[in-house]
C-alpha cells in the first residue's frame, strides 16, 4: 500500500485517498495541508485554505485503520542560527582569553630572562674587571676602554639599524653634558675602588647610595623625606659602618672612591630631574644612555692619556711581565658586560616601576657580593657578614617605603 501523510485537525473526516495525476504532480509541489483548530471547515477545499501555525498531525498508512500519531517538528532556522552564533562567539572569546594568557606568560618569562641577564652580566663585569685591575692598576685607562667598547657597540647598533639613530639638537646635547660628566666620574670612582679593595666591600659601600639620594634630593629638589625613609637609612649607615670596621681588605682610598661613586651616581639621578631635557619620540632611556656613553668616551680619553699615558699597548704590558692576550680578552669581556648590563637595566626600567627596579637592584647587589666572595675566596668574618646583611636589608626597606607619600599639611 502506498504511504501518504496529511496534516489534519482531529475533527476532520478523512477523505479517500486519490492518486494524483502525473500532470498535477508536476505542476504542484506537495505540501502538508494545514487547517485551523479553531475553525470548522465545511468541505475539504475550505480546509486547504485555512492554515494552522504550529500544531499538526500526520496520517500513517501503515495500518488499515489509519491511526493518528503526533510528529516532532524540525527546529526553527532562527534558533539554529542563534546557537551557531553563540558557539562562534564563545569560541572567539575563549581563543582571545588563551591568547592574552599566552602573551602574559611570555612577558613574564621575558622579564625574568632580562633580570637574569642583568645579574649575570654584572657578575661577569665585576669578576673580569677585578682581574684586570689587579694586574693592570690604571683605572682611568680601564674605564676609558670600557667607554670605547660601549661607543663601538652603540655605533654598530645605529649603523646596522638595530636601534633607531636619534636626531639630537645642540640644546639637547648641552643639557645631557652634565649627566655625561657625572656618569663618567661615577664609573671611574667605582673602578678606582675595585682596584683597591675587595669587590664585596666596594658593593657594600655602594649600598649606601640611598643615603646620598635623600640628602641631594632634599638639598637641590626640595624633596623632604618621610619618617619611614629616614628610618630605613639607619640600618644602611649602621651596616656599612660595621662592615667597614671588620673588612680585611679595608683601604681608605678604596673606601672614599666608593663613596665618591655614590655621590656622583646619585648626582646624576638628581640632575636628570633638575635638568629639563627636551624629550622627543626618539629620546628614550636607552637612547639617552647611548648618547651619554659616547660623550663619556670623548670626555675621558684625553684625561686618561694625560694622567696615565698610553699604557694599553703590547709593548708596555710585555715589559711589565703581563700576559697581553689574557689582559686584552678579559678587558674586552669586562667592557662588553659593562655596557650590556647597563643596557639591560634600562630595558627593565621601561617594563617595570622604579620601585620594582630598585628592589631588583638591591637583589643584584646581594648576588654580586655573594658571587665575588665565592669566586675570589674573600675572607669574611661573622660580624662583617652581619654588617653587610644589615646594610642590604636597609636598602630593601628603603625601596619599599619610598612609595609612602607624606600627607599634605592641612591649612
From TrEMBL:
Transmembrane is among the record's keywords: yes
Keyword Transmembrane helix attached: yes
InterPro entries named among the record's database cross-references: EmrE-like, Sugar_P_trans_dom, Tpt_PEP_transl, TPT_transporter
Entries under PANTHER family matching the protein: SOLUTE CARRIER FAMILY 35
GO MF term set: organophosphate ester transmembrane transporter activity; phosphoglycerate transmembrane transporter activity
Pfam families hit by this protein: TPT
One term under GO cellular component: chloroplast membrane
Localization per Swiss-Prot or TrEMBL: Plastid, Chloroplast membrane
Membrane disposition: Multi-pass membrane protein
Entry keywords, A to Z: Chloroplast, Membrane, Plastid, Transit peptide, Transmembrane, Transmembrane helix, Transport
Listed name of the protein: Triose phosphate/phosphate translocator
Superkingdom to which the source organism belongs: Eukaryota
Record-annotated membrane-spanning stretches: 111-128, 135-158, 170-190, 211-237, 286-307, 382-401
Residues of the Sugar phosphate transporter domain: 110-399
Residue runs in coiled coils: none
Amino acid at each position: 500500500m502506498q504511504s501518504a501523510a496529511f496534516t489534519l485537525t482531529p475533527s476532520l473526516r478523512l477523505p479517500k485517498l486519490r492518486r494524483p495525476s502525473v500532470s498535477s504532480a508536476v505542476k504542484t509541489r506537495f505540501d502538508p495541508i494545514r487547517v485551523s483548530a479553531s475553525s470548522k471547515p465545511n468541505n475539504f477545499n475550505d480546509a486547504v485554505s485555512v492554515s494552522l501555525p504550529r500544531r499538526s498531525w500526520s496520517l500513517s498508512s501503515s495500518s488499515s485503520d489509519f491511526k493518528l500519531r503526533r510528529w516532532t517538528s524540525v527546529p526553527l532556522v532562527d534558533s539554529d542560527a542563534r546557537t551557531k552564533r553563540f558557539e562562534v562567539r564563545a569560541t572567539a572569546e575563549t581563543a582571545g582569553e588563551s591568547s592574552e594568557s599566552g602573551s602574559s606568560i611570555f612577558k613574564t618569562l621575558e622579564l625574568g630572562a632580562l633580570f637574569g641577564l642583568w645579574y649575570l652580566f654584572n657578575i661577569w663585569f665585576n669578576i673580569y674587571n677585578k682581574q684586570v685591575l689587579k694586574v693592570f692598576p690604571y683605572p682611568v685607562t680601564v674605564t676609558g676602554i670600557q667607554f670605547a667598547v660601549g661607543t663601538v657597540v652603540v655605533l654598530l647598533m645605529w649603523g646596522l639599524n638595530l636601534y633607531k639613530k636619534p636626531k639630537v639638537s645642540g640644546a639637547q646635547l648641552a643639557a645631557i653634558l652634565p649627566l655625561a660628566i657625572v656618569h663618567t666620574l661615577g664609573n671611574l670612582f667605582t673602578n678606582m675602588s675595585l682596584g683597591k679593595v675587595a669587590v664585596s666591600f666596594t658593593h657594600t659601600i655602594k649600598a649606601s647610595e640611598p643615603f646620598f639620594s635623600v640628602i641631594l634630593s632634599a638639598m637641590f629638589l626640595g624633596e623632604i623625606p618621610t619618617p619611614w625613609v629616614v628610618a630605613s637609612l639607619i640600618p644602611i649607615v649602621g651596616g656599612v659602618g660595621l662592615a667597614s670596621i671588620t673588612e680585611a681588605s679595608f683601604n681608605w682610598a678604596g673606601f672614599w672612591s666608593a663613596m665618591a661613586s655614590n655621590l656622583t651616581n646619585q648626582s646624576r639621578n638628581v640632575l636628570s630631574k633638575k635638568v629639563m631635557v627636551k624629550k622627543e619620540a626618539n629620546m628614550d632611556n636607552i637612547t639617552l644612555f647611548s648618547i651619554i656613553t659616547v660623550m663619556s668616551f670623548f670626555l675621558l680619553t684625553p684625561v686618561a692619556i694625560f694622567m696615565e699615558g698610553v699604557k694599553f699597548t703590547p709593548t708596555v704590558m710585555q715589559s711589565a711581565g703581563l700576559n697581553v692576550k689574557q689582559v686584552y680578552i678579559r678587558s674586552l669581556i669586562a667592557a662588553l658586560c659593562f655596557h650590556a648590563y647597563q643596557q639591560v637595566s634600562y630595558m627593565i626600567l621601561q617594563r617595570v616601576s622604579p620601585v620594582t627596579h630598585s628592589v631588583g637592584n638591591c637583589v643584584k647587589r646581594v648576588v654580586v657580593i655573594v658571587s665575588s666572595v665565592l669566586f675570589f675566596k674573600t675572607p669574611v668574618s661573622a660580624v662583617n657578614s652581619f654588617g653587610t646583611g644589615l646594610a642590604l636589608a636597609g636598602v630593601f626597606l628603603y625601596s619599599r617605603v619610598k612609595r609612602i607619600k607624606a600627607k599634605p599639611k592641612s591649612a
